[in-house]
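Box S2. Input/output pair 1.
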Amino acid sequence: YREAWDRDKTQISIPSDTPVMLQSKVNALNISNKHYQKAWDEAKAKSYDMRADAIPIKHAKASRDIASEYKYKETHEKQKGHYIGCRSAQEDPKLSWAARAMMLQNDRIYRKAYHDSKAQVHIPVDAMSVQAAKECQTLVSDVDYRQYLHQWTCLPDQNDVIHARKAYDLQSDNVYKSDLEWLRGIGWLTEGSVDVVKAKKAQELLNERLYRTRPDEMKFTSITDTPDVVQAKINALQLSDV
């Protein structure tokens, strides 16, 4: 496939002064790395004189010293352990502030004043708030939940207390069933009760004997000369075997 092209491309001749060839030579010079660095290589081959106190040299040294971590910490390392103007750590404002902050952050020291003063509080045992708290604790306690409340801390003749006692008595199972205690063990006859009377009335209504009356039990006098009676007698004589 490429044999003809490979054979013909070696036989093509283009003049070297054509615009295309000149432009290609210029492009080759522009993209040539060797030609690009030619001036720099010639300058490096020549000797040059740069003094140590030149501005670029000083600037480079200062930048290196600033960027160096050792130079950055050199002043701090030299000042370690040297305090000027403070004879002790308590006189140093920074150390005093740090110690104060540490004391405030310490939980034991933070609660020391509370623990020292909590045992010195004096409250009267008969104060209303204390009595109310004790009563509330008794009410919410599981141990005393089902015990009768017999200790009252308010006047017994108050309306709310009387109402509460009555509501408590109504809700109590013992008081609710106390009216049935006197009936326990007493005999009772059902005669005269509503159910018994109702059953008797229903029995009378359903009684066949009371509902219908037999003809033989009815007392009456028949007339013998009525047409139907005379006709019945004639029929009886005609049907008689005698």
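Box S3. Input/output pair 2.
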Amino acid sequence: MGNLFGRKRRSRVTEQDRAVLQQRDKLRQYQKRLSLGLERERALARQLLKEGKKEKAMLLLKKKRYQEQLLDKTDNQISNLERMVQDIEFTQIEMKVIEGLKIGNECLNKMHQVMSIEEVERIIGETQDAVEYQRQIDEILAGSLTEEDEDAILEELNTITQEQLELPDVPSEPLPEEPPEAAPIKNRPKPELVAAS
């Protein structure tokens, strides 16, 4: 039936990645072959020692030692390849970041061309002028008081507070301590509330 929507899925693995991975796989196969050979040669060296062929066993162990060194070199090469793959991936990410920064910088430059500092200062100045103008209109419409009116109001307020109010005279006789007919407050009957008509 093929692909359901007719689109081919692109692999994320690049040719560069494939080449590095193939080299790594070849080195691992070589490593495996060397490891199997080392085991065989060790067994063969034991057999030669049992048979009393010390010289041949020594030669075989030298060969084995050389192959062990090759095995260590192969480990280092695989490690280098894997590090190189990681470095390539990180460099690709860095390139995308740099490309993004470049595009962002171009956008900012275009925006700066459209709106210069002088233009922004002009707009802010016009806005402040418009706000001040609107405040003046609001004061006129609200009939707000002038500074002279406010001064007159404060003067009148001071005059009123300084006038002497007519208060009743304070009695000069001392008050009785307790009225004889007064009952304690707790036992006094509550006055009836008169309903407003």
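Caption for Box S3: The chain has a mean pLDDT of 78. The longest helix spans residues 54-114.
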